[in-house]
Amino acid sequence: MSEQTTTEPGEYAFVVVSNRLPVDRVQNPDGTFPEGEAGWKQSPGGLVTALEPVMRERDGAWIGWAGAPDLELAPFDNDGIHIVPVALSAEDIEKYYEGFSNDTLWPLYHDVISPPTYHRVWWERYVQVNRRFAEEAARQSAPDAIVWVQDYQLQLVPSMLRALRPDLTIGFFNHIPFPAYGIYSQLPWRTQIVRGLLGADVIGFQRVADAGNFSRAVRRLTPFVTKNPVIEVPHAGGIRRVVARAFPISIDSASYEEMARRPDIQERARQIREDLGNPKTIMLGVDRLDYTKGIGHRLKAFGELLADGGLAVEDVTLVQVASPSRERVQAYMQLRDEIELTVGRINGDYGTISHSAINYLHHGYPREEMVALYLAADVMLVTALRDGMNLVAKEYVASRIDDDGVLVLSEFTGAWDELKRAVRINPHDIDGLKDAILQAISMPKRERQARMRSLRKRVRENDVAAWSSRFLETLVEAAAQRTVRPAATDDIDDLEWTVERPPGGFRA
Ligand code: G6P
Fold it and tell me: Using a 6 Å cutoff on CB, does residue 325 contact ligand 1?
């Protein structure tokens, strides 16, 4: 890729690029399609809810993968959004998605809870697939369009896209943590990734600490000056200002409140309690089955409480929803085996004919069912060992329109930075976790309500619409100030070249 390479502009003024499309390819959804035919169903993510209005207003396109191998699909319009599927082959999925994204970057960025694997062929494929996404974005974007790239799977896209289309305003948001330099520095391609991100005008992170970790990586790996939150990147004979700062993401809290007010959903919550035998306390865990979520720590604390008499199986049920995730990655297979073994042991040791200790569900559920579960749960356990945000914590809070229920929240989640009235835990401290569970169960109603009211206020004030407008406002402002100052040194051309194209190109 040379700097001179440019692409003919497309027609979309606002383009979102993410690994997954906001719609899922499904076989015969709800029987709406003839037998054997596939269709599209909107996936319920908060991101699409937040961006939908902006997309409609501004002629939006969304570029992403449809979630299955070798789907060569033509772009189409879905509910006012132009959807542009990017095809990934089985080998792309293995090396770029399961490999580099989810077996290298994911464990590395989550503080090496599971050891990351470094394979040069995975990196090469990550570069190739990122380039494909960047080229598609360049093709779809109108002159001077805004392009917003999402998450760790696509960190090279900002620089690749800037090289193809210097007219564009480019934002990037990292949904997962950005690790401390001592950990990040393990990555053999650490410099290329940092330079890839620096192609953006604004780089958003979940926490202030993540933005700080990124700036430190920039200082260690590049000669660029950082003046928090601005990083000065040499560009076209001058200086391009890149803003790197925290924009904590949120949920569409009004839609959760609305669902929680629905009589059918409240009835379903009652039904759930009854089906569980109306125990005194229902505790709930809701996670993708991922080793970052601390599900094992949670089970250990719960099992010990049943063993030492802190809890009686007649009084408390733990409902654990563990939705299937990345099932072809070895670390996830192993985790599933461990969790299911532990659940089986606890149920075998402490369950009775009429009471099982843990109700374990290896499924994903529609949002309505989740809200019913949130309403039914007296205590919500979020015990992540490291989590960019943890939206489940916010969903629980938004759903508790009765100002009741207790959130037990790990201090290692992004959500903790905002939800300080939750019961705080360090999931590694099993005794502390057990105490927090007992505290949550016996918390007086007045205290529960005071805490939940304040948590709800917080979630309502910073919902996902506020998040996206804050990011986009910053992006538009940053772009207006782009390429301002002339460079102070005359070796800047050299640096400029390395920003747009690292030595040896984007390959390892
Ligand atoms: C996290 C990531 C997302 C990802 C999601 C589900 O929330 O930040 O980018 O889409 O997990 O994982 P999956 O691998 O199924 O897309």
Answer: yes
